[in-house]
């Protein structure tokens, strides 16, 4: 694996952990695709730093479990904001 990919994977994981960020937020921050973020954190990082990968994965799993709530809140805001 190329060094810049390893560094990007570690930086993305650290960002996710420190900000409790979603894959989408991380992708936007680093200017890469959501697929790349996911692959970096779930596959590549396990080979580089398994402990860091486990911590980041826990946050991503929680975000995935909560995504239906965030979507519902966004829809609610959209319609309540439009009615004012």
Give structural notes.
Helix content is 88%, strand content 0%. The relative contact order is 0.14. The mean pLDDT is 91. With 84 residues, the chain is an all-alpha fold. The protein starts with a helix and ends with a helix. Helix 1 (3-19) crosses helix 3 and helix 3 packs antiparallel against helix 4.
Task: Please give a handful of descriptors for the protein shown.
elongated, mainly alpha, 88% helix, 84 residues
Number of helical elements: 4
Fraction of residues in helix: over 70%
As a percent range, the share of strand residues is: under 5%
Biggest sheet overview: none
Rounded to an integer in angstroms, the radius of gyration calculated over CA atoms is: 15 Å
The N- to C-terminal Cα distance equals: 53 Å
By helix and strand content, what is the structural category? mainly alpha
Q: Estimate the global geometry from the Cα principal axes.
A: elongated
Record field, number of beta strands: 0
Low-confidence stretches: none
SSE run: HHHH
